[in-house]
Structures are given as C-alpha cells and as structure tokens.
Amino acid sequence: MAKSKSSQVQGFREQVERLQRLGTAAAGQIAAWTEPQRRARVIDRFVHEFSEAGSDIATMLLDGSWRMPPEEVERRMTALNANKNLSEFGTDSFGFEPDSMRPVLPLLEFLYRVWFRVEVHGLDNVPDGRCLLIGNHSGQLPFDGVAVGGALMLDRDPPRIPRAMVEKFAVAMPFFSAWYTRWGQIVGLPDNCRRLLEAEEAVMVFPEGARGIAKPFVDRYKMTPFGHGFMRLALETNSPIVPIAVVGAEEQTINLFNLAPIAKLLHFPSFPVTPGMLLLGPLAALPSPVKYRLYFGEPMYFQGDANDDEVAIAAKVAQVRAAIQVMLQRGLRERRGFFI
C-alpha cells in the first residue's frame, strides 16, 4: 500500500514538472512575441499570408473551379466500385461501401481543394497493389489523413481509397462511428491490417498515434517515437512501405498544452488548450486554412523475419522515419509560409 501511494505521489510530481516545463516554454514564446518589432513583423506576415490565402479561397468559391465535373466524378466512382474485394451488394467484408462516399464528396473536395489547397508531390509513388502508407501525424484533429485520402481519391489515376487504421476511441464518437467503416476506415488492429494487405489494399498508418497528433506547438515537426507494428506487418505480408511527409498540419491548430485530466475524463487522447478557446470554445479546435503540402516518397522494400527482436525491427523503422524526416525538411524549406 505504501509503495502504491509512493508511486502515485511520484506520478503527480512528474505531471507537475511537465506542466511547469510547458508553461515555461509557452511563457518564453509569449515574451519573445511581445517584443514590439518582432510582434509587428509577425502581424504583418500573418496579415499578408492570410489575405493572399483568403483571396485564393474566394476566387475558387466564386468560379467553382474546385469541383470536379459530373462525368469525372462518375468515372472515379466507377473505378472505385471495380474493387475486386466488393461483393454483389457493393461492400467488402469490413463494411466498406464506396458509394457511401458520394454524399460527402463535395465536403472532401472543399477541404482538399479550397480550405487546405493541398499541394502534392510524388503521388505516382503509390503503387496499385498492396502497400502501407506511413506518415507523420499532427494537428489535434486528423485532417492530415483526410488530405492523404483526398490525394489518392481526387488526384491519383486510377483513384484509391486508403484504408486508415483509426484509434479505438473513434468507435465511440457519435457521428464518425456510424460511418467510418462505410468510408473504408477500420480500427487499428494487426489482424485488420493484415487482412487488408492480403487483399491488395492500401493501408494508411500513422505510427506516432495519439502522441503525434497531440503535440504542443513548441514541438511542431519533431516526430515522436514510431510504433513497430507496421514494420512487422510489412515483413509478414511482403508489402512495400510508402513514406509520406505532411507539412502544414502542425499549424492548423495552435496547441499550447494538453489538459490530460480532462482528456482522461472525456476518454479523448488529448484535450488541447488553444489561444482562441476562451472566445470560441470547442470551435477553436477546428483547423485554420493553412496550406498543406504532401510528399510521397519512393516505395521502400524490406526483407527479414516479422518475428525478429525489437532491435532489428527498430533499425528498419528508423529508416522509414528518416525518409519522412528528409521530406519534412524539404517541405519546410520550400514553403513560403503557413497559409501560402
């Protein structure tokens, strides 16, 4: 009993120290930002970028250039419905139903073409058969996955719908839980992933999981440790890995720090505190119109035993992580700003 109480005290101290570190970092950023000259430069840059992005968004909304012609929509839906894994009723064994995407296609197009104005590099690197799409994860809400899905469905030819491995907590979400299986997304269990790869599907995995998506703003573009499960499945199923770098999602929601106790109470992976929370409430977690840049790397092929020890698997995972890091640095060099 005494040992248990001591562990609880130690855990509480670690939480307090972590909050102190986050508070110090946030205070440092605020202090630096409040310098008059620095503040003026930041505001001028923000206004310029936001105005340019706003102009682009307004132009697309007015001329309708972001919508696919009806015949192109039909062509792509026909290609998606030609999936050999679909039954005569248009669904697969997981409940995936391509036609269920039709009602939400305008929303996907809007987010992909207008709101995030996604710029894609290397999309031809995604093969036609089985593959694992492995990317960095960020943004508090998984719009990075939406962007990758939009690239494969709206820009790739022939189109594909990536089968994303989602966190278990998503099953309990009121709206999403009723539709995520119909849209091709499944709970991130190894057996689910294995079956999809054996069926020649493209499976999207973010190995950072909730750790990556909940990073505070001060840690943007610093990838958290990767899980190793995807590598074991790649070896077991002889599946190529396509590394993906997502640039832009880190700035869509400014997370100062996470309130872990509230997240635990609500059964969320995190509860971000954002600058606009007092004014906007939960709406402050919605993404700002940042510009996304996606980089698809060349497929990586690995050989070895799926049951190798952690050291051997970790070395292979490190190669994938390094490939993503190189593309992240390229994207950060090439972009002009958060919104443009």
Describe this protein's structure.
With 340 residues, this protein is an alpha/beta fold. It has a domain at 68-252 and 287-334: 3-Layer(aba) Sandwich (Glycerol-3-phosphate (1)-acyltransferase), CATH 3.40.1130. The chain is 47% helix and 10% strand. The protein has a 7-stranded mixed sheet with strand order 1-9-6-2-5-3-4, with helices on both faces. Strands 7-8 form a two-stranded antiparallel sheet. α4 (105-115) packs across α5 (143-155) and α7 packs parallel to α9 (229-237). The model has no long low-confidence stretch (mean pLDDT 86).
Descriptive terms for the model:
about 350 residues, 7-stranded mixed β-sheet, two-stranded antiparallel ribbon, about 45% helix, globular
List the helices and strands and how they pair.
Blueprint: H1 2-33, H2 36-63, H3 70-81, H4 105-115, E1 119-121, E2 131-135, H5 143-155, E3 163-166, H6 176-179, E4 186-187, H7 190-198, E5 202-205, H8 209-213, H9 229-237, E6 241-247, E7 257-258, H10 260-266, E8 272-273, H11 277-280, E9 293-296, H12 310-334
Parallel strand pairs: 1-9, 2-5, 2-6, 3-4, 3-5
Antiparallel strand pairs: 6-9, 7-8
Helix pairs in contact: 4-5, 7-9
Could you say what the CATH architecture of the domain at 68-252 and 287-334 is?
A: 3-Layer(aba) Sandwich
Strand content: 5-15%
**CA-CA gap between termini:** 57 Å
| CATH fold descriptor of the domain at 68-252 and 287-334 | Glycerol-3-phosphate (1)-acyltransferase
Query: What is the strand arrangement across the widest sheet?
Result: 1-9-6-2-5-3-4
Class of the domain at 68-252 and 287-334 in CATH?
A: Alpha Beta
SSE order:
HHHHEEHEHEHEHHEEHEHEH
Helix content: 40-55%
Overall shape: it is: globular
Taking all residues together, what is the mean pLDDT? 86
Low-confidence stretches: none
Largest sheet: 7 strands, mixed
Give Rg in angstroms: 21 Å
Structural class: alpha/beta
